[in-house]
């Protein structure tokens, strides 16, 4: 008895399993599949592979979540065999497959995944004993299920065997027919198979005719199987050669060729097909989630697109931090001794620069201006600071340390800062105990303010009223400033020059709180909300909105860990999104699936580069090179390069195509001139004839295109029939033998009427 074990860590969004199928060849006795979570084995299904091939329902529906393990065991017996049996695709070889049917939330759906490794062999010591107990199968069921594996020894049936080999060239069984239709109608992209083949080009009309022929053969198969020889096992082949020849011509509209590198030892892998629909998903490979941080209060991107994190080190905002007059009560702790501003490589979370030691007590908001200066707020100090990226001392300080107030020179727990990239004007949201937006000149002079507190008696907040203006997003495209009006659960937008109210964005799915917002040039507005109150259903999540319409385009949540109190969000023009959580003390990275399709994807040791181009097949090549740690170019330069790259490519290609033509014409003109000079009119006549022949040949060759078949056929040892196809035996990949609360923000908010939480 030999066990074949397979196990992989699942690294995707939750999926729900509802059916399974098992497959081996003749020696398989039992195949079992499990979900392993926290050491507990939950049966998905177990079945004898000698029973007819079918999907069986999962008796008790099973869900699979991030970092669960999916495991399967096939038990084989060598009884009756006198020779060694190897893994392979023929009937005399063996294979072990456990197929799962599942569904997922549509926006996270992955249409195809495979697991081919054993991530943890030691775990199988704890596999339930039922996985080792065969299921008895009656002999008649064996014949039905494995007729195509039987070795025919009756000489009287030899003629039938010969006849069957002809029949199988003409007949498709019903399963193959539906398999063909599913390929034509269902698949959108190629998937990775163990046995590779070279798909050949086929004219669409020929393919349609071939499919019509398949339908006729399907009807023919039904007639033949109705006769007495229906029981002859030789007529019941698992797959048909003709089907594979047709199948090999099928190529979905968008092809991807993958080159795979074997995963590292001990690592399981999941491979997926990507879709082109816009959707935000967590980048699960990003190591930034594992950084040791304090309460993460602010995030921003600098001009070089590096991620800047503002955190509280070993200080915590809790119910003991302030008195009833909002005066900080833990001054005796001193300022935070750790660097509170961290600059990280957005790709690999490597620390590039750090600062802010012994400056702050309770960091909150963060913004970076176009010159790379950091603008931060401290709710304990009640101040706003401007710091240069390399300066140890602040360049500008607004407010009076440790003195809350509501006049022009005081703040009361200011929350965020925004700087106009055109005018340099500074906007401060103030704050937890004031309900206003204040504008300052670039040098810190007071300009104006607007906003007032929400009237609790009216029941509904009016335009320009705030209940903790918590986060700012400057919209230079529209000359607007948008404010996350946290406790009113809405976003308000105002005219930059006057503070005039323009619009409100509010959705039921926001719940009671909107914590932070971020705008991306081009019209996308990102936001994160707060935890729902007891009995409320709105989930804590991220939102992507069309700024012009306010419509929600997408929502997103992390796979690793979960949002507890997402406190800030920042997004870049390429739709990369970072979310910082003040309770989880973590930073997540998200990216649009569009972007993820155009980057190097590394999963469990497999690195695959995927590129989509219309009417072009680009073979993805493996790279063992580590991810580049070079800083990203400046944001403005990156934007210009992005706009210019298409034009440059077009000009370059056009130039390369024109140069040979120009050179050829120059040569012809030169020859003609020489002929005219030497031979006169007669020479000119000869040149016309000669150049006509040359151009004629060029046109003839150009019209015919590049024919690789003729090219190979012209060399010794090559046939004009093209490339030989490798037969693959359907979904099991068999083959014929012949084919070889900030203040309480960090605390749970009480039911209404609640005291506003902090952070």
Automatic annotation (TrEMBL):
Biased composition (Pro residues): 749-759
Reaction equation(s) it catalyzes: a [peptide]-C-terminal glycine + 2 L-ascorbate + O2 = a [peptide]-C-terminal (2S)-2-hydroxyglycine + 2 monodehydro-L-ascorbate radical + H2O
Region (Disordered): 721-759
Gene3D superfamilies: 2.60.120.230, TolB, C-terminal domain (2.120.10.30)
Cofactor(s) demanded: Cu(2+)
Pfam families: Cu2_monoox_C, NHL
UniProt keyword list: Copper, Disulfide bond, Glycoprotein, Membrane, Metal-binding, Monooxygenase, Oxidoreductase, Repeat, Signal, Transmembrane, Transmembrane helix
Extent of the NHL repeats: 352-390, 398-443, 453-497, 550-593
Keyword Hydrolase: no
Molecular function as annotated in GO: metal ion binding; peptidylglycine monooxygenase activity
Protein's recorded name: peptidylglycine monooxygenase
Domain of life of the source: Eukaryota
EC number: 1.14.17.3
Residues passing through the membrane, by range: 647-671
PROSITE patterns per UniProt: CU2_MONOOXYGENASE_2, NHL
GO CC aspect terms: extracellular region
UniProt source species: Atlantisia rogersi (Inaccessible Island rail)
Domain Copper type II ascorbate-dependent monooxygenase C-terminal: 3-127
Transmembrane helix among keywords: yes
Acidic residues: bias regions: 734-747
InterPro entries noted in UniProt: 6-blade_b-propeller_TolB-like, Cu2_ascorb_mOase-like_C, Cu2_ascorb_mOase_CS-2, Cu2_monoox_C, NHL_repeat, PHM/PNGase_F_dom_sf
């Amino acid at each position: 008895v030999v066990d074949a074990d397979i196990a992989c860590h699942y690294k995707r969004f939750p999926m729900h399993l509802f059916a399974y199928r098992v497959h081996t060849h003749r020696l398989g006795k039992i195949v079992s599949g499990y979900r392993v979570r926290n050491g507990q084995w939950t049966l998905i299904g177990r079945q004898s592979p000698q029973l007819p091939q079918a999907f069986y329902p999962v008796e008790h529906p099973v869900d699979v979540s991030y970092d669960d393990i999916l495991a399967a065991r096939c038990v084989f017996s060598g009884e009756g065999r006198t020779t060694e049996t190897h893994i392979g695709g023929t009937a005399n070889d063996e294979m072990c497959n456990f197929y799962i049917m599942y569904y997922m939330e549509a926006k996270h759906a992955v249409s195809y995944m495979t697991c081919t490794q054993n991530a943890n062999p030691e775990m199988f010591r704890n596999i339930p004993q039922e996985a080792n107990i065969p299921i008895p199968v009656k002999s008649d069921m064996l014949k039905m299920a494995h007729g195509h594996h039987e070795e025919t020894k009756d000489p009287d049936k030899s003629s039938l065997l010969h006849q069957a080999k002809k029949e199988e060239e003409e007949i498709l069984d019903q399963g193959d027919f539906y398999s063909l239709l599913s390929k034509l109608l269902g698949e959108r992209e190629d998937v990775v198979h163990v046995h590779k083949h070279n798909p050949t080009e086929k004219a669409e009309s020929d393919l349609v005719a071939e499919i019509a022929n398949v339908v006729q053969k399907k009807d023919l198969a039904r007639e033949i199987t109705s006769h007495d020889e229906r029981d002859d096992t030789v007529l019941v082949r698992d797959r048909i050669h003709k089907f594979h020849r047709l199948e090999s011509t099928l190529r979905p509209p968008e092809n991807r060729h993958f080159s795979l590198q074997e995963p590292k030892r001990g690592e399981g892998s999941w491979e997926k097909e990507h879709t082109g629909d816009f959707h935000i998903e967590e980048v699960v490979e990003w190591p930034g989630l594992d950084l040791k941080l304090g309460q993460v209060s602010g995030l921003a991107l600098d001009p070089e697109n590096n991620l800047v994190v503002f955190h509280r080190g070993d200080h915590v905002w809790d119910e003991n931090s302030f008195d009833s007059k909002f005066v900080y009560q833990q001054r005796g702790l001193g300022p935070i001794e750790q660097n509170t501003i961290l600059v990280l490589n957005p790709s690999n979370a490597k620390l590039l620069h750090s600062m802010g030691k012994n400056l702050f007590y309770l960091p909150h908001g963060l913004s970076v201006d176009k010159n790379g200066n950091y603008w931060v707020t401290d709710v304990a100090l009640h101040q706003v600071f401007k710091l240069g990226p390399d300066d140890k001392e602040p360049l500008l300080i607004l407010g009076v340390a440790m003195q809350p107030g509501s006049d022009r020179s005081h703040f009361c727990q200011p929350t965020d800062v925004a700087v106009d990239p055109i005018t340099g004007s500074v906007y401060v949201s103030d704050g937890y105990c004031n309900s206003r937006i204040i504008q300052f000149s670039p040098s810190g002079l007071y300009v104006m303010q607007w906003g007032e507190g929400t009237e609790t008696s009216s029941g509904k907040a009016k335009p320009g009223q705030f209940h903790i203006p918590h986060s700012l997003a400057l919209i230079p495209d529209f000359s607007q400033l948008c404010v996350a009006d946290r406790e009113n659960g809405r976003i308000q937008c105002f005219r930059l020059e006057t503070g005039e109210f323009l619009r409100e964005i509010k959705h039921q799915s926001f719940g009671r709180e909107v914590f932070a917002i971020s705008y991306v040039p081009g019209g996308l507005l990102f936001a994160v909300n707060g935890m729902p109150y007891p009995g409320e259903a709105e989930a804590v999540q991220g939102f992507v909105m069309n700024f012009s319409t306010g419509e929600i385009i997408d929502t997103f949540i992390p796979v690793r860990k979960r949002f507890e109190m997402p406190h800030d969000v920042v997004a870049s023009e390429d739709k990369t999104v970072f979310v910082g959580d003040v309770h989880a003390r973590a930073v997540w990275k998200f990216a649009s699936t569009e972007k993820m399709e155009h980057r190097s994807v590394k999963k469990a040791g497999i690195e695959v580069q995927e590129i989509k181009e219309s009417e072009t097949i680009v073979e993805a090549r493996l790279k063992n090179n580590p991810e580049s740690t070079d800083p990203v170019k400046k944001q403005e330069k990156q934007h210009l390069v992005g706009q210019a790259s298409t034009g440059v490519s077009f000009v370059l290609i056009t130039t390369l195509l024109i140069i040979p033509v120009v050179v050829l014409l120059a040569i012809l003109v030169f020859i003609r001139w020489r002929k005219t000079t030497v031979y006169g009119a007669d020479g000119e006549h000869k040149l016309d004839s000669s150049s006509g022949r040359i151009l004629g040949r060029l046109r003839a060759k150009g019209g015919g295109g590049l024919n690789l078949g003729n090219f190979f056929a012209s060399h010794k040892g090559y046939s004009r029939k093209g490339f030989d196809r490798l037969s693959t035996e359907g979904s099991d990949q068999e083959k014929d033998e012949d084919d070889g609360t900030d203040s309480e923000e960090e605390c749970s908010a009480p039911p209404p009427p609640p005291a506003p939480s902090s952070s």
